[in-house]
Amino acid sequence: MWEWRIFYKSADVQFFNEKIESAFGRAPLESRTDDYLDFDKIQFGLKERDINMVQDETPLLELKIRLDRTTWGAELWCKTIKIPLSKRLKDKPEIEIESISHIIEDDEENLNKYYISQHREFLEYFRNSRPRHFEMQKERHQITAIFNYSMSEWQYLDYPDHFLCEFPPYALLVEKVRFPVKNKLWTSVAIESMQLDALHRFMELFIPKIHGVKDYIMGYPEFIHARLAGD
User: pTM for this one?
Assistant: First the structure.
């Protein structure tokens, strides 16, 4: 999935017009806490999703690998792992690296062959790493945007990505996430699509010229690494 994401302190920027904001207001609010593992290699994103089990019955281990990046900030991510966990891995930090490595290795048989080399590159790096944890308490709204060819305009549906695969090529997801970091409220805005052209078309119409926040056009792994580094 192609993704363009930006982070900014919540009082700094207003991105969307009233039509999009109205769709966000109708969309359900998802609240959950994710525990990210921070790495020096920002092309890898590993987290325990919903550690308080608000949305899911158990936490989920998710691994995303960045495959490509455009000059204007769109990134191609593949979610190679999404596995239910019987318990929090952080509860036993002395075996965390070994436990995660075994979980990922055991699931490789279910992996698309196209991603096996990146998967193994991650495992080799991960076994020699000492990742830090970064818990993020999120409040997220997500909508679906579809380009209506007959009306030559974007229309917005206030339900999430479960239906994206049923839509025509010019369909994408738009999300807004708010979360605190060191007692300051941040916002992340993301636009996602299976088609890079659809994402770029939407960006040209709706994303304004950005001043003062260009350094924060990035994925979650890079943002978290910068926060932990004190940026």
Answer: 0.85
